[in-house]
Each structure stands twice: as structure tokens, then as C-alpha cells.
Amino acid sequence: AAAWLPKRPVVTDVGSKFALGTARQWLEECQVEHATCPRSVKPKLPTRVVDISMEGETGRVKSHINQASEYGEYAALSYCWGGPQLVLTLKKNLVSMTNGLPVDKLPQTILDAIRVTRNLNIKYLWIDALCIIQDSDEDKDKEIGLMNQIYKNATVTIAAVSAKSVSEGFLQPRTAPEYVTLPFLCSDNTFGNALVMKQFNYDSMHPLNKRAWTLQESLLSPRKLLFGENELVWYCQTERNRYAIGCLDNYGILPPEVFQRDREVQMEAPEAHSVWVSVVNDYTKRSLTLREDRLRALYGVTKELEPVFQDRVGHEPYQTKRLQTV
Hints:
Elements: H1 17-33, E1 48-51, H2 55-58, E2 60-65, E3 74-78, H3 94-99, E4 101-102, H4 108-119, E5 124-126, H5 128-131, H6 137-144, H7 147-152, E6 156-159, E7 179-185, E8 191-197, H8 202-205, H9 213-220, E9 224-227, E10 232-235, E11 240-242, H10 269-283, H11 299-312, H12 316-325
Parallel strand pairs: 3-5, 3-6, 6-9
Antiparallel strand pairs: 1-2, 1-5, 2-4, 7-8, 9-10, 10-11
Helix pairs in contact: 10-11, 10-12
């Protein structure tokens, strides 16, 4: 029956060589073959990235500061903090972070992200806790203002969708979902077996989709590698590959031109308003620790859509509706 059933049994060990090798293959195929995905052109690096290139030899990673408009590939991490963080970049440890941080001091989710990034043959990793000076309002305001570029320009975003906190990690083996075996009549009139399992609700099951800050990370990422409760999923602007079932309702809601660096977003007024309403509807269902972050946590998306509203949604009714949704 395998010739007629495209799905395969769930791969429960998402950290295996096979799973991570498949993820690397997905990325390479996307960069080479997908015309609708961002071209394989190295973007400008964010202000800070974590250099993982020496981790295997020295057991340390270090903060790399982009001081000369450097360009290069980097991965971005989307994850839940899950409370106070033990490892942060602060004013007092800026120098020590650039000298190197022992990996045995890092929480499990960050360790797992480093492992995935290394397996994807990417040198740099962007992590908000380590790449933004967390006790500097000036630096936070600056980097939040660049959030749309940070995620949009990332080669791939690694999403720890099933982890409730940074200490939990996301590469541990999963428990296979329950399934039943049913007879399957193939097109050549032979009988085989089909494994049937209950479809799960992606949005309600994963902690990452309950946090307000992570919505724009999802929407702005042109490529995403998601480590879920029962599956490893690849999303890009061209296709979706997965080792299970489920869906992401909000992925792909932004027009594809957002991710093409040399193209303008083309949307008519009603379509632009519909996109904005969908974003706000999703956003307002999510939780936020600090009330004052309500607008900041969505700033990257509004910054991407602002030219559309300014240039193509000049009609007063749509501007009014947009303000009402906020």
C-alpha cells in the first residue's frame, strides 16, 4: 500500500541522524530548486549572532558582533522562555559573551538549536536572549525595530513548538501516537494495510503557538523547521514536508513578495485589510507577560505591511477598520 499512500509512520526520534539529515536535504532542495522561495543570497547579519563554529572543538560558543556590515547565513530560534532565564546577554557580561560561553552552561532548548544549526551546516544562530542586551532599553528598542529583518532574512527558523520552556529541549524522542491498522484496497486490486491515527489540533497542542511574541516570528520566517509534539515539519513558500499530520493555519498568510528582497508587496485594499484582520485575530488569542509589549510584539509584521497600507489602502474606510482592529 506504500505506493498509494504518501504518508509514512511518524519518526519519533526527531534528533536522529536520519531526521536531521532529511531536514538538511529539505533546506538544500529549497535553496536550489524553489523559485518562489528567497534566493540563496547571503543577507546582512543581525547586530549580534551566536557563532557556533568552534563548539565541537572548544566546547564554547561566542557572541559575534557585526561591526562592518558583514553578510552570511544564519538560523533563528523561535521558542518559549518559560519564565526567568539563567543565561542572558547583559551590559555586565558583554565582553565575556564575545570571548566565549561554555555550552554546558546553556539550557537544553538552546543546546538543541545549536545541534540542529550545526547539522544544517550554518555557522551562526540568532537567539533573542543572547543576541539582545536584555537590561538595555535602548538596545531592546533597536533590535525589536529590526525584528522583521532578523526573521525574514534568516536562512531558516528553528521552531521549538512543543517545548514549554527553554530548559525543556525539543530533540528528545517522542511517544508515537496511537493508531489502528485497517485493510487498504490498492488500485491494482491487491490488499495492503493503512495506519490511521487521530488528527491533532496543531494550534491548541503546542506552547509556542500560545505566545504573542512568537506569532510574528512564524509569519515573517520564509523557511521553518518545526519540532512538534509528534512530528518534524518543514515549511517554506513552496511546499510543506512532514513526518505526520497536522496543519499551521496562520502560516503563509503574508503575501510571498514579503520574502522576495527585490520585489514590492502587491495587494489590493480588501485583501490587505483581510490579512491584517487575520493577523490581529490570531494575535489577540495569545498570551503576553508584559502588557506594555502589546504593540511591540507585533511590530515586525506591522512594519512589513505598512507600505501596503500607505500606498494601496489610502481609502479612509480601510484605515479606520485597521485602527479599530488594533
